[in-house]
Amino acid sequence: MNKSLKYFTYSQNSLNTYKSCPFKFKYKYIDNINWKYDDVESREYYDSLKSGREFHLLCERYFSNIPLGNCNNKEFNNWMNKIKDILPIKEDTYLPEYDMRLNFYNRNIIAKVDLVEIKKDKINLWDWKTENREITYKNALNRMQTVVYMFLAEEIIRKNFYPNYQIESISMNYYQPALGNKPITITYNEKLHEENKIKILNLIDSIESTDFNNENEINKNKDHCKYCEFNKLCNSEDINYEILEEDIYGP
Fold first, then answer.
1. CA–CA dist 167, 171 (Å, integer)
2. Which among 112, 119, 187 is positioned nearest to 145, based on CA atoms?
3. Which pLDDT score, from 0 to 100, does residue 138 have?
4. What is the 3-state secondary structure (H, E, C) of 17-30?
5. Strand 170-175 vs strand 122-128: parallel, antiparallel, or unpaired?
6. Separation CA 139–CA 129 (nearest Å)
7. Alpha-carbon span 141 to 184, nearest angstrom
8. pLDDT tens, position by position, for the chain (251 residues)?
9. Fewer beta carbons within 10 angstroms: which end of the chain, N or C?
10. Domain with 22 in it: what CATH number?
11. Which residues touch 133 (CB under 8 Å, ≥6 apart)?
């Protein structure tokens, strides 16, 4: 195992990065390269990430029962009104920007959920997506974010704090206020939990068995290059920022 991984904390981003391209994992997490190409398109892309973080902050304030104050961004106001419609504050428990940390088989795994909503017999995980590319149910089901979040919700939240709830009480909900569609909801069960456990452990095993010091032995996913922020570095080719994946490159 590479010494950089001895105390490494795994997240949906790092697992998804390795799954997408092990060579990219090397750049980001072993070599600690933060590649940001300073052209107009990249600035627009990183500005959009900044805008997404600002909107997430508004959502955090709303679910923390903190006054939002005056927001001059009409788009944000419109999005917040949509979120208030689908999730009006009730006498439930709301945990915005909730950290989940687990030591699992001596591996540290972490996730931060935009919102954990605890209702009677329900544990709802919420994620706000500000991207304009529509998320489908199939895409949501297969996202590493869904795999990691639901797995940790079962291992940490339900088992430790709500053991009287059933595992089926857990759901993962994606909402895209820019599109105004209904939330996409993934429900959980024991079969999915076991599958997610295997996916996570297999990925971590693959990462830790990769010899990152020997570049000739590291797989490079050529099919993913056009989606990758390191395309300029690897192939001297321009990057298409319109199709970069938010769950890899976002906060």
1. 9
2. 112
3. 93
4. HHHHCHHHHHHHHH
5. parallel
6. 13
7. 9
8. 778 898 899 999 999 999 999 999 999 999 998 755 544 344 444 445 566 788 899 999 999 998 877 777 888 889 999 999 999 999 999 999 999 999 999 999 999 999 999 999 999 999 999 888 889 999 999 999 999 999 999 999 999 999 999 999 999 999 999 997 899 999 999 999 999 999 999 999 999 999 998 888 888 888 778 778 788 778 777 666 555 544 443 33
9. C
10. 3.90.320.10
11. none
- Between CA 44 and CA 48, with CA 45 as vertex, the angle to 5 degrees is 85
Dist. CA 247–CA 17, nearest whole Å: 9
Single-letter residue type at 54: E
| Exposure letters 167-192 (e unless 16+ CB within 10 A, then b) | bebbbbbbbbbbeeeebbebebeeeb
The Cα–Cα gap between 29 and 245 comes to 17
Q: Is residue 4 part of a domain?
A: no
Structural domain count, the chain: 1
Q: What residue type is 110 in one-letter code?
A: I
Would you say residue 83 lies in a domain?
yes
Residue 239: the pLDDT is: 63
Token pair recorded at residue 238: 């321009």
Token representation of residue 58: 């508004």
Residue 7 domain-assigned (yes or no): no
Domain membership of residue 3 (yes or no) is no
The two tokens of residue 248 are 């890899």
User: Within 10 A of 123 (CB to CB), how many other CB atoms are there?
Assistant: 23
